[in-house]
Every structure is written in C-alpha cells, then in structure tokens.
Amino acid sequence: MIEQKGIKILLMNTERKVSKSKIIIRFLIVLVLIVVAVVLFQKKKDNRVEANIFQNEMDIVHGSDSADLTIYLFSNYTCAFCRKFFNNVYPELKKEYIDSGKVKLVIKPIALTNNEAVINSLKIVVCLNKYGNMEKLHELLLLEPKVIYSGKFEQVVDELTAKDEFVAECMLGGEAEVYLSRNLIDFKRLNCTGTPTFVINNKIYKGYVEYERFKKVVEKERQYALH
C-alpha cells in the first residue's frame, strides 16, 4: 500500500514537472514568435533594404564625396515624374543641400523598356557624362523627351560619337550597355518597380513628392546618417 502511494506521488510530481516544462516551452515559443513579428514589422515599416547600393564611375554625380548624406536615384527621361523632380525639386535641393556640401545626389539611369531610342539616349548621356559634358543634352531631354525618336537626335548622337573617340567607344563598345544593365539588375534586386525611386541610407523611397516633403525625408536621413 505504501509503495503504491509512493508511486502515485512520484507520478503526480512527474506530471507536474512535465506540465510545467510544457508551459515554459509554450511561453518561450510565444515569446520568440512575438520577437520575430516585431522585427519583421519594424523592418517592413522602416523599409530599409539589406543589400547595399554603391556608386559607379559612370553614375551622374552632383555634390561632394564628403557630404553627410548620399541619395541614389533611379531615373530616366521618359518618366514624367522624373522630369518633374529635376524641374521642381532638384533646383531647391541643389541650392540648399548639394551646393552646401550636405548632400550628394548619385543618379543611376535605367531603361525600363527595350526601346532602342530610349536605350541609346541613356547611353549617350552616360558616355558624355564620363568623357565630356552632358548638361546641354540633359536639359534638352528634360525639355523635349520625345526628341529621341527624331532623325535629328540620331544625327546629334552620330556627330558626338564622331567627334570623340572615347564617347564612341563607350557608346559602341559595350561600356554604356553593361553599365545600364547593372543599374537595372540593382533596381530589380531591390524590388523597385517604377521611377523615380530613391535609395537613402539603404531605405527605399518610391515616387515623386514636392520639395517640402522631400526636404523632411532628407533631414530625417541626414540625422540617421550622422548618428
């Protein structure tokens, strides 16, 4: 009788220990799930991407290398909101942040189409940026983006490549094509879908906003970079 009572007590103690262990395990599982959910929520909320983006020697760069903040911009001239950014936002950004050495803007042109005219227009821009002066062409494409489909534009491209062997080699030798392809790969790797797309401190900002809203983003990300 005593032995049976002892066995019962032992079994009851064992069951209590097992139940207690199960409770602890369940609690730990719930705790882990909560932590994972919070991390995922914060990551989604913050929208900072894991993969870095780097400057290339063919990028169109405005600003000093010692700037507090680097803004990467995926853009193209067939994008109406990209042109709106350059016409409405960029002048103020340049005056307040770029010229003062606070911000560096790194433009990465991309072609979201297989249209030959579009691709060639970007090729000549990046080649002139590296080996010549692309400002006048940049201004023309912002003002008259459809000019790229004209015979006159093809003539201008032919004249520019004939005048400078480095530009010609860049255009025809594959350098510009490889560069634009890499930009598109980065664009897709970051799960971007349209232009303009900005990458600042590994955080993605999609679409066009007016300067005052963009300025708030710049200030926020400058503080983040400085800390």
Task: Report what the structure shows.
The chain is an alpha+beta fold. 62% of the residues lie in helices and 11% in strands. It contains eight helices and five strands. The protein has a five-stranded mixed beta sheet with strand order 1-3-2-4-5. A hairpin with a 2-residue loop joins strand 4 (197-200) and strand 5 (203-206). Helix 3 (116-131) runs antiparallel to helix 6 (165-172) and helix 5 packs across helix 6. The longest helix is centred in the first third of the chain and has 45 residues, at 2-46. It is elongated. It starts with a helix and ends with a helix.
Largest sheet: 5 strands, mixed
Structural class: alpha+beta
Q: Give me the number of helical elements.
A: 8
- Beta-strand percent range: 5-15%
What is the rounded Rg? Answer: 28 Å
Determine the N-to-C terminus distance: 73 Å
Low-confidence stretches: none
What proportion of the residues is helical, as a percent range? 55-70%
| Strand adjacency order, main sheet | 1-3-2-4-5
What integer is the average pLDDT? 87
Principal-axis shape equals elongated
